[in-house]
Amino acid sequence: FFGGRSDSDSSCSDESSSDDEQIPTQKKPQRQINAAAILFSDDETDDKRVVRSAKEKRYEALFTIIKNIRNSKKIKNFNTMLSGFEELLKAFDKAKPVIEKEEKGVIPRFYIRILVEMEDIVNETWEDSAGRKAMSKVN
After folding, report:
1. Going along 58-102, which residue ranges are E strands?
2. What are the distances in angstroms from CA 33 to CA 20, 43, 45?
3. Where does the pLDDT of residue 133 fall: very low under 50, low under 70, confident under 90, or very high at 90 and above?
4. pLDDT digits over 51-109, tens only?
5. What is the torsional sign of CA 18, 22, 24, 25?
6. CA-CA distance, 76 to 69, in Å (whole number)?
7. Using an 8 Å Cβ cutoff, are 139 and 76 in contact?
8. Whole-number pLDDT of residue 9
C-alpha cells in the first residue's frame, strides 16, 4: 500500500526498509490536510467585512486611545499618558469634520471627560509633594 510492494516480496530486511518508508509517507497527507484547513480558515476571514461609517471609525479610534490613557493613568505612567494625549489630539483633529457634520459641532462628552480626568490626575500628583519626590525621574 505505502511502499508499493506486495506481501510476498517482503522479507526481514525489506520490512525494516518498508517501515522507514511508511513513516514519511504517513506524515505528508497530514501536512496537506493542515494546509487545506489553513486555506479554508483564510477564506472565512475575507467574508466577514463590515462596512462602518466615518463617524464609527473616528469614534472607535478615539475610544481605543482613551482606553490606553485610562490604563496608563491607573499605573501613573505619565510618559505613556502624554504620548496618548498627543495621539488623542491628532485623532480628534481627524474627527473634527465628522463631529461638525454629525454632532453639529458639539464636542462629545467622552472627549471632555478624559481631558478633565487627565487634568485632575496631573493636579493631584503635583499637589502631593512627597509623592512627586518619590516618583521616578522618567515620569
Report:
1. none
2. 22, 15, 19
3. confident
4. 888 888 899 999 999 999 999 999 888 999 999 999 999 999 999 998 888 888 899 99
5. positive
6. 10
7. yes
8. 53
